[in-house]
């Protein structure tokens, strides 16, 4: 067992030993879904004030709405959420490269078969943070599988300060 | 501003007021990435023992590895993570429907254009929890864009008890 697996096992045993919320319902109690980045410096529950059982939390590289679409549709249509909160963040890795760079790194690290496998993959980098939030909101609002009744807002989290501000 | 947005704003202000970790590096300090479900009953940082700055956390409906692939490649190849922890969970919504059900609900709720938009979408439901963990691990191990050197393990989190157990 790796040190990381050992850490998960030990820390989880401690968490479970005082766990008292085993009767929460499957659908989010506050009927919302948060889409944010996988970045290691973000703890959505703490930073965005999400209590256990209240909201779905979708995370991926960049807090990308296209990547999150399957999950958002399931959240909204099958599990009853009606509000979408999209949060990207300062100093995001997605601001630092372009598709050609990423494909080059994969091929250099893993060889030509890997390079071939990602030759058509859009890694979804973006050059402008606030514009990327706005673009993702427009993408969701324009998608026929997202309800026109859904409340959608866009935010930026600052990894330097812990502060979140609304931008769309 | 909606009640949910107001909650985010107020809770975040409180979080930021005592925030002291603004100097963490972008790449995860412990070089691992966790893939888990968007389920509202999971707090990965607390339940899996992830300290701020230590790991990428990818979340989607079902903790699906295919959906997470773009993010995993970015995490591994561009941001230096070398270990993947995949955690699915008991009572997952993905155990409760099939693609035809989901497509039918979308069409019923949002109309024929929406139904058409998801007619080819694989919602990635699964009928067997532990098998789904194993299948996703095999998917990652077989993918040319995932390093053969990466350490990959599979786990089940029990929403009823807060306990996590390794299954692959």
TrEMBL record, chains A, B:
Keyword Zinc recorded: yes
Annotated Zn(2+) binding sites: 37, 39, 89, 92
Gene Ontology MF annotations: carbonate dehydratase activity; zinc ion binding
Cofactor section: Zn(2+)
Root EC class: lyase
Function: Reversible hydration of carbon dioxide.
Annotated protein name in UniProt: Carbonic anhydrase
């Amino acid at each position: 067992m790796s040190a990381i697996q050992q850490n998960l096992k030990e820390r989880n045993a401690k968490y479970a030993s005082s766990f008292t919320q085993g009767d929460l319902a499957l659908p989010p109690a506050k009927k919302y879904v948060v889409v944010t980045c996988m970045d290691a410096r973000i703890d959505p529950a703490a930073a965005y004030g999400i209590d256990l059982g209240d909201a779905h939390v979708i995370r991926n590289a960049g807090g990308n709405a296209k990547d999150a679409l399957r999950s958002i549709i399931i959240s909204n249509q099958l599990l009853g959420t009606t509000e979408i909160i999209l949060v990207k963040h300062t100093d995001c890795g997605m601001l630092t490269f372009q598709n050609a760079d990423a494909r080059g790194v994969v091929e250099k690290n893993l060889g030509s078969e890997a390079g071939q496998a990602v030759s058509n993959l859009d890694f979804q980098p973006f050059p402008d943070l606030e514009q990327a939030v706005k673009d993702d909101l427009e993408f969701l609002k324009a998608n026929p599988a997202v309800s026109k009744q859904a409340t959608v807002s866009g935010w930026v989290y600052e990894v330097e300060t812990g502060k979140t501000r609304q931008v769309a």
